[in-house]
Amino acid sequence: MIEFDPRHRIWLLSTPTMAYALRLDEDGTPRHVHWGRPLTLEQAAAVPPFRDPADSSFEYPRADGAEFPVAGFGPPALQVRFPGGGQEIEWRCDGHTVEGGHLTIRLHDRCRPLAAELHYRVHEDGEVLERWTVLRHTGGDAPLEVLRVDSAAWSVPHLAGYRLSHVTGAWGSEFRLRREALPGGETVLTSRRGVSGHHANPWLMIDDGGAGEEHGEVWSTALAWSGSWRITLHRSPAERLRWSGGFGHDGVTWRLEQGESLETPVFAGLYRPDGFGGTSRSWHAYIARHVLPAGSELRPVVYNSWEATGWAVTEEGQKGLAVLAAEVGAEMFVMDDGWFGARDSDEAGLGDWVPNPGKFPTGLDGLIAEVHRLGMRFGIWVEPEMVNPDSDLYRAHPDWVLHEPDRRRTLLRNQLVLDFGRPEVASWAHDWLDRLVGGHGIDFLKWDMNRALTEVGRPGAGDPGRPWIDHVRGVYEVMDRLRADHPRLRIEACAGGGGRVDLGVLRRTDEAWTSDNTDAADRIAIQHGFGQIYPARTMAAWVTDSPNFLTGRDLPLRFRFHVAMAGVLGVGGDLSRWSAAERGEAAELVALYKEIRPVVQHGVHYRLGEPPLTGVQYVADGRVVVLAWRLSSPFGAPPAPLRLRALDPDARYRDDDTGAVHHGAVLLAHGLPLELPGRSHASVLVRLTRVE
Ligand code: GLA
């Protein structure tokens, strides 16, 4: 997987679909050579040197093609202010090590106390290259000021054009896929919110403008970080593209004391020759195998009480919902917000993590025993990073929140952010969570995070940039410890819906709450964007009431189910208001989901069709599941049929429900015949099994 040519001083990292090469030049600077289709070491040595700018005194040849740019006029991957003020860096290479699929290149500055390690890792069973950087202050009393340190910079071969795919959004409308020509100059994708964000997500794809769902070259990168981040793309006047990205946003700097190190998060990248679909499938496989802690496990069908009760939680009410949830086939009953402290609205109680005595006079055990008696596991909502000023915790520890002295403490959703970078705060959070989970045998936490960070300060911390990083690391540490001590515990990542979904949080959680918008028609687009990178097994999707609480839209129960069945199905409606017939239909659909679940959650994912008729296809072990949804379509203009993918053209496939037998070649060429009633909001689930 990793080869080195000492003569040309070239390293080559290979996966089955991709090669990545870099070299060391005469003065010790690592230069980028290649990222794209597979090459041999000999071929990599023949790649022409990267020469970007025209030869003129207004350019800076030393920066050409730098693997980790520290100089020149493009966006730097590293900027350090040395004691006394200088900022120039001149690398010398101390050598490299290769351990399995992990290459480390060690650099130090020629005359200043700065060392860096560039890390590259490929996995035997994957197509993704993981990169990160470690900086170290190697001597002298004065601190180094790190103005920027990215995880990695990426360059693609010279293409005829450059198109950027990424997502934007907001609360209730996350993961809106955008595919747009990349303008000349610099384009910044960033979060300054202290959280990866609803408004953006730290990944991107690049193609030449001609790639499609199943064809064309695509280069893609994704950052494993749940706090503020920044990725700067630079399309140069000479039409070369590179980008650099990492944690922190503009203005967030760090102080490095003597002997101290700073390690960046992983910025992972992959190249696929087979379009956006192939790119998504590679990310899905990587996340399942190398990111998720329990990636090979099937996710349970959750019932969540939030939309049913809001804050009006009572023990009797929860028990009543649990009976109905068990009837429809839920496997995990999750009690949402409102169970603790003085939490009767979003104005009070956050931070006081004891059951509200009026709602649970004898504690949680009665409810949990009932949930277990009904054959379900029990989960509970928590928001450990937050505090309402109207809480006993805040009255006792007003200094525990992120704040700047003499500045206002901005309330968002009536809450402030606890500084998880302070050891006493993280240990307080760990202790109550540990007691809650251990003391009650809790199987599942919905870990929420309902506001962006503002006034990110820690008086006395010295280094103004640290709280931005420390908070995220503190959250990671608490999650990691809980999982290590409670191996059965599973965690759902949530931040007001999909405000914190990234490779960093998925390393310690099992699924993510995709969006607070549970309107199935809106969800089709949200799920489309989510699935560009993140696999179905992480995409929590509930069926809720109709009309929808957020949009007022009325949708058939089957349609709502068929959309949610494309991910980790859950139920989140007020089942006490559903008719017996609706609950009966729901029970049938939940049972059907359990039957297709191994294919949906562990199969290979293909996106089908164009609006108004779209769908997804999952394939595993000769089984095929298609979920298709049609939004309203004009009379007389039937949408194009859904042509299936990845079938054996010579095989036949039997419809498990109707018994009809289809030729693979016909399904590939002419699509799946679908029975879609009416003109709007129709949906269908088709299960096929390969018969010969
Ligand atoms: C956030 C979550 C919701 C719900 C509420 C509770 O908005 O995304 O699902 O848990 O908080 O306050």
From TrEMBL:
Gene3D superfamilies: Aldolase class I, alpha-galactosidase from lactobacil brevis, Golgi alpha-mannosidase II. The keyword Hydrolase applies. Residues 616-688 form the Glycosyl hydrolase family 36 C-terminal domain. Pfam families: Glyco_hydro_36C, Glyco_hydro_36N, Melibiase. It catalyses: Hydrolysis of terminal, non-reducing alpha-D-galactose residues in alpha-D-galactosides, including galactose oligosaccharides, galactomannans and galactolipids. InterPro entries: Aldolase_TIM, Alpga-gal_N_sf, Alpha-glycosidase_related, GH, Glyco_hydro_36, Glyco_hydro_36_C, Glyco_hydro_36_N, Glyco_hydro_b. Residues 28-257 form the Glycosyl hydrolase family 36 N-terminal domain. Its EC number is 3.2.1.22. Transmembrane segments: none annotated. Keywords: Glycosidase, Hydrolase. It comes from the Bacteria. It is an enzyme of class 3 (hydrolase). GO terms for molecular function: alpha-galactosidase activity. Belongs to the glycosyl hydrolase. This is Alpha-galactosidase. It comes from Microtetraspora fusca.
